[in-house]
Design a protein that fits this description.
two-stranded antiparallel ribbon; about 130 residues; alpha+beta
Length: about 130
């Protein structure tokens, strides 16, 4: 059971990394602190292989930069990473909606969001006067 929980948490970590890399280039220690604020306690021996996997998958690119005389790797999201992140967000939205609100309400929210994304404004509810 513990292995399954760890696998799920590490999947969340991957999504966090992609999310933050989509905002700006990120580096390891910064993300260890950020993830720590969310309750994840990761060692460099756990985090850096995740970065490596995301680079190998083509979701991130690494660029070494000299900072205060030391080389720091900054990770930026790639177009493939942006596409994957968008797909992950859709699935996360669907799962959390269903888990938190029930399937019918989650489907309603997904449909309303899709209509807004298409540029169509959802119909307002008619109120009785």
């Amino acid at each position: 059971m513990a292995d399954i929980v760890r696998d799920v948490f590490l999947a969340f970590v991957r999504v966090h990394l992609l999310h933050h890399a989509a905002e700006k280039p990120i580096y390891g220690m910064e993300m260890m602190e950020e993830l720590g604020r969310h309750g994840y306690k990761l060692s460099p021996g756990t985090l850096y292989p995740i970065f490596g996997d995301l680079v190998d998958a083509g979701f991130l690119r690494a660029e070494p930069v000299v900072v205060e005389g030391k080389v720091r790797k900054y990770y930026s999201i790639t177009p493939g990473g942006r596409k994957a992140l968008a797909e992950f967000k859709d699935k996360i939205r669907e799962l959390t909606g269903e888990a938190l609100y029930g399937e019918a309400e989650a489907q309603r929210k997904i449909k309303a969001r899709a209509k807004r994304a298409d540029g169509r404004v959802p119909a307002r509810r008619q109120t009785r006067s």
